[in-house]
């Protein structure tokens, strides 16, 4: 699906209603309206902030729509009150006059330059962890899709050549073949490519925690606990134990690019293929077999 969104000329997003039968507001059903406010002899239009519409939409809670939002080059978003367009360089709201379509004007009025992140903003080494934190609360019908629905984001970052990162202070890039292991990002270093380096950064990426947002039970369940489909060291295991819209979020404590030089790491990670072969993480990144063909230990 990620290749479809990346190559589509435009993606139409229905950010209204709770199901596919709701239709597009303004096309297949009337929009909701906000009446003007009259003060003296002047009439003022009450504009609905699109970020509120988006945040509260069912579309924004679904796991499979995350890569749709992130990877599409151009998005035409339909809410109950208006439509909104954003590409990589420009955005416009149906309720705004043309004079207010610049990013600076939008930031002054709404508090942000873009309603949705642009590719320049999210395709960096550290931002992949912020994207995982964003994705984590979203819901999926099947627990086994916890990683699958995010793989397209890993793939997009790994598809960018290492030259893109050679000028950055970190010099890190994601391997093209296998950019993650059970959802944990893997990083190669242009300056120091060895087993200890990739293992050490893999260890840093394991530094995540679950944090309380509001009062409420941790991983409350309506029924009996079920065995997770992923290893306990992967964020995907706790995501599968959540009730929809619970009160917890995931936080990645470490950022591999901010950790300075490796000094006496003395840490090597190996993975075991289901055939019994044991290989290093660096060898794993070059294999055609993906993580599902390896044991999670």
Automatic annotation (TrEMBL):
Per the UniProt record, the source organism is: Alternaria tenuissima
Looking at the record, the residues that make up the Heterokaryon incompatibility domain are 1-68
Q: What is the name listed in the Swiss-Prot or TrEMBL entry for this protein? A: Heterokaryon incompatibility domain-containing protein
User: Which Pfam families does the record match to this protein?
Assistant: HET (PF06985)
